[in-house]
Specification:
Layout (H helix, E strand, L loop, with lengths): L1 E5 L2 E5 L21 H9 L5 H11 L8 E3 L6 E4 L6 E12 L2 E10 L6 H17 L1 E2 L4 E2 L4 E6 L9 E8 L3 E11 L5 H6 L14 H9 L4 H31 L5 H21 L7 H11 L2 H15 L6 H32 L4 H8 L3 H12 L1
Parallel strand pairs: 6-9, 9-11
Antiparallel strand pairs: 1-2, 3-5, 4-5, 5-6, 7-8, 10-11
Helix pairs in contact: 1-7, 6-7, 6-8, 8-10, 9-10, 10-11, 10-12, 11-12
Length: 379
């Protein structure tokens, strides 16, 4: 155990041989999920709007978009390699100053809920409070805890909306430390949108990790495992498609910037790579995902948009018509890429034996076009 100094902040760090992005030890033999990188990408976007919207949503605050957002601590990554199903977590501290008022938050992300979470969160909060906000008077010591929140990604039966840590003092009574819980598995894309939690769009793939992990560890015949994975792959493909559509819509509505868009896609790619690296019979989905990424976010379109935007944007007196033309050009390029990719996805699904109705629903292509694609495969 040691203290890590960053600026004026001292952070208590628990040394653990398992705190690495990749673990190839005999005890594990599993590829680690880089939760630290994922949360850092999502919560350190240069555009503050998605972060502020999320904080206002879960804490019920009313922070303005002009607020100053700071991250006084680097997220700590930890993993429990003794569990049957690997558990990953990331700790995130956020300080927001809005109109002279300080908001201090402590958010814990956990893939799999563990019973000692309340104790850990209290301990980390206490350490931060002592190191950052301690005021020494003659008879009183005042410390200020960050407001805690726990986000659990994978389903945990019986988990309530709050965790209570009851601290008992023999003669002074009891103190109740409450931690609100966001149960991510209860959120689909629509609910995340309605509750302004769109920052968490890219984490939808977590809904499949426990199934894939248990299937991998099971003693079923490999052929049977592959059959089950083929079926779940279709659902994963649809989930990625719906997530990309939601992110695209957030961009069109000016909730996120083009740079945010890229960061969110990077998170999805990180999760997809984790699935492929961890479950060696999952690789068949890689091509479809790659095609889908290109259809929703063509890097060349991004590059053209940024170059033109800088060249035109820095010039005083730029005409509104030019700006609109650039935007229309980007949208047209993206749409063309989407149409081409949908045809390729439809072709791949048909080759796997999917029904015409399923392909139409998945790709949103017309039935007549899907029939033509099917004829081309048969010929």
């Amino acid at each position: 155990m040691y203290y890590l100094k960053q600026g004026n902040v001292l952070t208590l760090v628990q040394e653990d041989q398992s705190n690495y992005e990749s673990d190839t030890s005999k005890n594990s033999g599993k590829t680690s999920l880089n939760m630290d990188s994922i949360m850092k990408r999502l919560f350190t976007l240069k555009n503050k709007r998605p972060i502020i919207d999320f904080l206002n949503s879960i804490y019920g605050d009313d922070i303005g978009y002009e607020a100053e957002v700071n991250y006084p601590n680097v997220e700590n990554l930890n993993r429990n390699i003794n569990s049957v199903i690997l558990s990953f977590r990331a700790d995130l501290y956020i300080e927001v100053t809005d109109k002279g008022k300080l908001y201090d938050y402590a958010i814990e992300f956990q893939t799999k809920y563990e019973k000692d979470m309340g104790i850990r969160i209290f301990r980390y909060g206490f350490d931060k409070a002592v190191k950052n906000f301690m005021e020494l008077n003659k008879n009183t010591i005042d410390i200020s805890f960050p407001e805690p929140y726990l986000i659990v990604l994978e389903k945990e039966k019986g988990l309530e909306d709050k965790i209570n840590l009851r601290i008992k003092f023999p003669k002074q009574g009891n103190f109740n430390y409450e931690i609100n819980v966001l149960k991510y598995w209860e959120y689909d894309i629509q609910r995340l949108y309605e509750e302004n939690k769109y920052l968490l769009y890219p984490l939808q793939l977590f809904n499949y990790r426990r199934f894939m992990e248990r299937l991998k560890e099971s003693k079923q015949p490999e052929e049977l495992k592959k059959e089950k994975v083929e079926k779940i792959n279709i659902h994963i493909l649809i989930t990625i498609k719906n997530t990309l559509e939601a992110i695209s819509e957030a961009y069109k509505c000016d909730k996120i910037t083009l740079e945010d868009y890229n960061e969110m896609l990077s998170v999805i790619q990180n999760l997809n790579d984790y699935f492929i690296d961890t479950y060696n019979y999952y690789k068949g989905l890689s091509k479809e995902v790659e095609i889908m990424f290109k259809s929703f976010y063509d890097p060349e379109v991004e590059k053209r948009g940024i170059v033109i935007g800088f060249e035109k944007g820095i010039q005083k007196g730029i005409q509104k018509g030019i700006e609109q033309g650039i935007e229309q050009g980007i949208e047209k390029g993206v749409q063309q890429g989407q149409d081409k990719a949908k045809v390729e996805i439809a072709r791949n699904l048909l080759r796997k034996g999917m029904s015409l109705e399923f392909v139409v629903e998945t790709t949103e292509l017309s039935l007549d076009l899907v029939k033509e694609i099917a004829k081309g495969i048969m010929s």
